[in-house]
């Protein structure tokens, strides 16, 4: 690649750029990706017709209230049942505040809470009258019952003072705590963004265009290989006793007797209510309470048991409904990015993006697209201002990847002062001779070769010919000034480092890896349309010592060199260690054939780990290139060597002040090593196969700080886990990675990036350093005010990522985004995105556990969200009774999603969750994009008997609660790490036969890791749905078959996140009540 060519204009803009071929790499296994080639680059045709103002930036471009007109369905008044006591609140709800009265807008969601139960008359009597799920709104005017006053007192939240904006803990110094990360996935479209077929078909009948048969674009590329994904479930089945609880299952009328009296203390503010759905009254959930100190009274009231009561789940905001409404309202039109501050469709909606000046939401999503003008306002609302950035996200084939702009030796045009890159928001003045920076206002001369005349509107006449003037995302070819040591980089190298201990050999893992590599090496990333990959490869095996291999093409056989002085690691050979695959193919194949034989009889169980990384790093240093280490490792490194670890796992620390130590590395040896790796551009991917604790919190440090990925296969067994592992490995090896990267986020005056979350390293407060950054990794950036913003000029972000492509080309990828600014809180609340907010909050909380008791972290999260909602209630909604919970339309799912984060394994682990699982999940979530956190915290649950085998659409998803399940149905649940198939005890025999190939429920094996391939429409349809889901995720999900009432059912129930959890997590209904109480306390 002649990077030095002197082209001054953007290169072949408008025509396919070779460099981008990567987007259509042939699938592994030789299959071409269907239908990709043509439009990768879509021709750039200038602005979309309908787009009037190409340059969003300047001027008071008022964004149309994107969140504006709420979909009719999401009406403001939430399900109002018939109040059991009409005299209470009914009016509040039904005639309540006219929507127009609400300052905030018409999108309020009112949820009325019933009054204190004590005020309730003989409950049972009154309920019978109301049939449908209703709950009586409680209006304070009705005379709150005494209980409610005393309850809730020593209100924890009160004691914190109202402005409890700041969570009790403050994050650790930015650069200090990066967790490991991971994320992977390759080709396919950003999973979530909804590229694939619309996942949840609208029930309304409007057929969605998408189709199921052909898995989402990217999915096809994967055809032969699924992606893989570790699962965090402890393999061993949960203790049996867990099963003793009530069966899950379909509305089990009759199963659930009235709760014991003692457990039904009346709860202030909670209202009795009948369960409309099943005609049955449910009692409060006993587990609740533990989690929230403030509610200690709950459940302990003496006195005769008042009738059980609770909110009707059907009356509270439903994630399924919100997802479906968005899909119906926004899935059909492309999302055009020309207008400042537009809120994009949800990540669960399938939509196309047209770049007209702002980066696609596939690259950047924000917690709010309209940010407060002042810091005081921002503090008042407590809404975090953050952007989730995925700089190298893969796009669906229908969308155009960023164009590559080559300005020749002079390099990209930048502001003289702040060094921001040329972008659509720069203002050309003086006839085009100078431009004023949109970030810092400094005026810079336009270099002669870049000069162009302006038209009568002040726009350059070559506006549409230059990506950097008209698009939100594009790339610049970097000059030598952007390279280390002022020298263009060599292509990166991949080093495969295989644990050949007794466990690894005996499980068949070593042989499996070697066999796979023989073919996988043909699919290394090519970073463009190169004939063959430029990446060189090297091989190391290890146990207590390291074995290096010379695979130089001129050798007849590979040569092994052993380094046993692990304390002073060095690479024994330079020439012949890193080679071109094609040139050395015969020697490499021979080596991979021999490795399993050479160690077949090993008895070695003591392993080293740090010296392995050190060796890989030294090899890259010697070769003067960046690269990636693929380490396959099985156990805690206890052999005498640097980085030696001890088993310090101790579950007794859970719920103590020392719990945080479980997440901290046991030595800082690894972070020092990571620092060296980052300096060299050495990214470390880790594949773990533990049979016991191996200290993921410590081993994962280097992976995390180098931007690598971690995969974990506990109790690895060839039969059940190889498909998942191989798919993960294939995807991981093939995906595009930017090496030796540095990312900086510039902002316009008034705000600045203050905090960063993700897998990377920082040596100062502004530059995010990534030894490697792949297409699945996100970096979440938080912003704070440092001055006032103006509604006219809005706010701008520019994310610039400097990296080395897998072809060895140095590039800059630029993403720009303009946001609105507001002086009214209502505008903020109208333009928020809850999924992104949850992504930020989860990462913030998961980082917080490093330095704070988990309970402190949970309380801080609850408190912050209560303040967000209380601020809305106080400033944006019109006055109404305290018995009503009013949620902003854009945040009506905040409580349910927040609860999912609070009861996740990291923050509230059940007994079956291991310390390593928690550290692992914590690391994964830290690099997840918004779509991934969305499905991870609120899994997707699909009724399989509702699939239409003649239709491409997926069945409509249902809410994650046991009471939504029917004994006669089968369900598929996925969360990005696992796929469960739950089979009810009454499922028709014919369906069981068709899906599992056995004749009865009792014969279904729950150890199968894939569904049998049966030639009937139902089997084909279900398998195609699974293939499609696998293709959407960055890791291959583990399939777990769960039979109702079987021992594995507890694992499954753990994911029914609207229910209370075994580990003490609250149900959605109970949590909503709790949030309401917190909000009321803040307001009072
Ligand atoms: Zn500037």
Automatic annotation (TrEMBL):
Low complexity: bias regions: 10-26
GO CC annotations, alphabetized: COPII vesicle coat; cytosol; endoplasmic reticulum exit site; endoplasmic reticulum membrane
One Pfam family it belongs to: Sec23_helical
Main location: cytoplasm
Gene Ontology molecular function: SNARE binding; zinc ion binding
Alphabetized UniProt keyword annotations: Cytoplasm, Cytoplasmic vesicle, Endoplasmic reticulum, ER-Golgi transport, Membrane, Metal-binding, Phosphoprotein, Protein transport, Transport, Zinc
Location in the cell: Cytoplasm, Cytosol; Cytoplasmic vesicle, COPII-coated vesicle membrane; Endoplasmic reticulum membrane
Biased composition annotated in UniProt, kind: Polar residues: 84-93, 103-143, 192-217
InterPro entries in the record: ADF-H/Gelsolin-like_dom_sf, Beta-sandwich_Sec23_24, Gelsolin-like_dom, Gelsolin-like_dom_sf, Sec23/24_helical_dom, Sec23/24_helical_dom_sf, Sec23/24_trunk_dom, SEC23_SEC24_subfamily
Domain Sec23/Sec24 trunk: 489-733
Region feature Disordered, mapped onto this chain: 1-341
Domain Gelsolin-like: residue ranges: 954-1026
Keyword Ligase (UniProt): no
Coiled-coil segments: none
UniProt protein name: SEC24 homolog C, COPII coat complex component
Annotated organism of origin: Crocodylus porosus (Saltwater crocodile)
């Amino acid at each position: 690649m002649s990077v030095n060519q002197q082209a001054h204009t953007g290169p072949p803009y408008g025509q396919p750029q070779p460099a981008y071929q990567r987007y259509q790499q042939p699938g592994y296994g030789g299959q071409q990706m269907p239908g990709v080639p043509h439009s990768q680059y879509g021709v750039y045709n200038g602005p979309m017709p309908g787009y009037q103002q190409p340059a969003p930036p300047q001027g008071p471009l008022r964004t149309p209230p994107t969140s504006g007109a709420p979909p009719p369905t999401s009406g403001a008044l939430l399900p109002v049942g018939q109040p059991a006591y009409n005299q209470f609140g009914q009016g509040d709800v039904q005639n309540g505040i006219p929507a127009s009265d609400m300052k905030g807008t018409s999108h309020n969601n009112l949820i009325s809470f019933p009054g204190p139960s004590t005020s309730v008359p003989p409950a049972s009597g009154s309920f019978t009258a109301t049939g449908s799920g209703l709950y009586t709104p409680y209006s304070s005017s009705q005379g709150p019952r005494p209980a409610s006053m005393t309850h809730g007192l020593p209100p924890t939240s009160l004691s914190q003072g109202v402005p409890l904006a700041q969570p009790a803990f403050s994050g650790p110094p930015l650069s200090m705590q990066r967790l490991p990360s991971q994320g992977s996935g390759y080709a396919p479209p950003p999973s979530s963004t909804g590229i694939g077929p619309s996942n949840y078909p609208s029930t309304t009948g409007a057929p969605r265009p998408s189709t199921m048969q052909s898995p989402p674009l990217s999915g096809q590329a994967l055809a032969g290989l699924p992606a893989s994904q570790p699962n965090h479930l402890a393999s061993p089945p949960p203790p049996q006793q867990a099963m003793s609880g009530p069966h899950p299952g379909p509305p089990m009328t009759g199963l659930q007797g009235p709760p014991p009296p003692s457990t039904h203390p009346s709860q202030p503010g909670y209202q009795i209510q009948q369960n409309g759905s099943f005609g049955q009254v449910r009692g409060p959930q006993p587990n609740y309470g533990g989690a929230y100190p403030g509610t200690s009274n709950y459940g302990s009231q003496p006195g005769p048991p008042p009738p059980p009561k609770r909110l009707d789940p059907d009356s509270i905001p439903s994630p399924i409904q919100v997802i479906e409404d968005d899909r119906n309202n926004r899935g059909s039109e492309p999302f055009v990015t020309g207008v400042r501050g537009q809120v994009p469709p949800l990540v669960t909606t399938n939509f196309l993006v047209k770049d007209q000046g702002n980066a696609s939401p596939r690259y950047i999503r924000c917690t709010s697209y309209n940010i407060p003008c002042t810091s005081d306002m921002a503090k008042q609302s407590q809404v975090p201002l953050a952007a989730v950035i995925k700089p190298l996200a893969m796009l669906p084939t229908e969308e155009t990847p960023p164009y590559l702009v080559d300005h020749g030796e002079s390099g990209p045009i930048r502001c003289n002062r702040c060094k921001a890159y040329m972008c659509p928001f720069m203002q050309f003045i003086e006839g085009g001779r100078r431009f004023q920076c949109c970030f810092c206002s400094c005026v810079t001369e336009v270099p002669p070769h870049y000069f162009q005349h302006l038209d009568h509107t002040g726009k350059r006449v070559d506006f549409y010919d230059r990506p950097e003037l008209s698009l939100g995302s594009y790339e610049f070819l970097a000059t030598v000034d952007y390279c280390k040591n002022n020298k263009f980089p060599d292509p990166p190298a991949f080093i495969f480092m295989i644990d050949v201990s007794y466990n690894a050999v005996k499980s068949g893992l070593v042989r499996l890896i070697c066999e796979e590599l023989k073919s996988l090496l043909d699919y290394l990333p090519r970073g463009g349309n190169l004939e063959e990959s430029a990446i060189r490869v090297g091989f190391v095996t290890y146990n207590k010592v390291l074995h290096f291999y010379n695979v130089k093409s001129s050798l007849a056989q590979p040569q092994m060199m052993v380094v046993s002085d692990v304390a002073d690691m060095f690479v024994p050979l330079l020439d012949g260690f890193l080679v071109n695959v094609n040139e050395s193919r015969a020697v490499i194949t021979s080596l991979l054939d021999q490795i399993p034989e050479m160690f077949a009889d090993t008895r070695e169980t003591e392993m080293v780990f740090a010296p392995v990384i050190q060796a890989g790093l030294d090899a890259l240093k010697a070769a003067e290139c960046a690269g990636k280490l693929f380490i396959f490792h099985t156990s805690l490194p206890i052999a005498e060597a640097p980085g030696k670890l001890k088993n310090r796992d101790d579950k007794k620390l859970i719920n103590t002040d020392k719990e945080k130590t479980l997440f901290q590395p046991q030595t800082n040896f690894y972070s020092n090593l990571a620092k060296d790796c980052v300096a060299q551009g050495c990214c470390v991917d880790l594949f773990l196969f533990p049979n016991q604790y191996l200290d993921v919190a410590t081993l994962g440090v280097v992976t995390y700080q180098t931007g690598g990925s971690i995969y974990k296969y506990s109790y690895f067994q060839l039969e059940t886990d190889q498909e998942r592992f191989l798919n993960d490995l294939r995807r991981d090896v093939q995906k595009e990675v930017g090496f030796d990267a540095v990312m900086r986020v510039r902002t316009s005056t008034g705000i600045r990036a203050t905090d960063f979350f993700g897998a990377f390293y920082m040596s100062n407060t502004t530059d995010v350093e990534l030894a490697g950054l792949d297409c699945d990794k996100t970096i979440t950036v938080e912003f704070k005010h440092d001055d006032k913003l103006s509604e006219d000029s809005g706010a701008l972000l520019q994310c610039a990522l400097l990296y080395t492509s897998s072809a060895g080309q140095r590039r800059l990828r630029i993403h720009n985004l303009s946001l609105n600014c507001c002086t009214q809180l209502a505008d903020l609340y109208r333009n928020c995105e809850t999924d992104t907010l949850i992504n930020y909050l989860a990462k913030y909380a998961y980082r917080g556990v490093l330095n704070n008791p988990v309970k402190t972290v949970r309380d801080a999260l609850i408190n912050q969200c209560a303040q967000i909602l209380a601020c809305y209630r106080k400033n944006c909604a019109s006055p109404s009774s305290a018995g009503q919970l009013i949620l902003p339309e854009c945040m009506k799912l905040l409580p349910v999603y927040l609860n999912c984060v609070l009861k996740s394994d990291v923050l509230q682990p059940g007994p079956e969750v291991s310390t390593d699982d928690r550290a692992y999940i914590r690391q994964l979530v830290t690099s997840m994009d918004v779509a991934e956190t969305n499905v991870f915290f609120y899994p997707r649950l699909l009724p399989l008997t509702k699939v239409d085998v003649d239709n491409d659409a997926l069945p409509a998803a249902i809410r994650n609660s046991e009471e939504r399940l029917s004994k006669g149905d089968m369900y598929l649940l996925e969360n990005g790490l696992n796929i469960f198939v739950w089979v009810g005890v009454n499922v028709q025999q014919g369906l069981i036969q068709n899906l599992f190939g056995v004749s009865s429920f009792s014969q279904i094996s729950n150890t199968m890791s894939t569904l049998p391939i049966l030639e009937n429409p139902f089997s084909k349809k279900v398998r195609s749905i699974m293939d499609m889901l696998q293709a959407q995720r960055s890791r291959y999900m583990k399939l777990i078959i769960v039979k109702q009432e079987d021992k594995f059912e507890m694992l499954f129930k753990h994911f029914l996140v609207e229910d209370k959890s075994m580990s003490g997590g609250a149900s959605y209904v109970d949590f909503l009540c709790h949030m309401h109480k917190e909000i009321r306390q803040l307001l009072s």
